[in-house]
Give the backbone structure.
Amino acid sequence: MNRIQCKRCNQSSLAFDNFMDLSVPIPRSSVRITGNVDLPACLKEFIKTEKMEECGYKCPKCKGVDNFEKELTIFRFP
């Protein structure tokens, strides 16, 4: 699930995206400290909430621009 939320009025937009494969980021801290890559750490980095600034997205409710948070959730693995 992909959720985008306006930080001005708390309006949320939900979308469900299908995927066959998943490209996850590899956190630098896990590689630097242990030399090994931990899959749960990669998934945690992938679903981390991110701030959307200067993206051009406009809130349909309050018409605010560039004040959003994007959150991903994995419901079921392929």
Observations:
- Strands lie at 2-6, 12-15, 50-52, 68-72.
- The longest helix spans residues 39-46.
- Residues 3 and 14 are 5 Å apart (CA to CA).
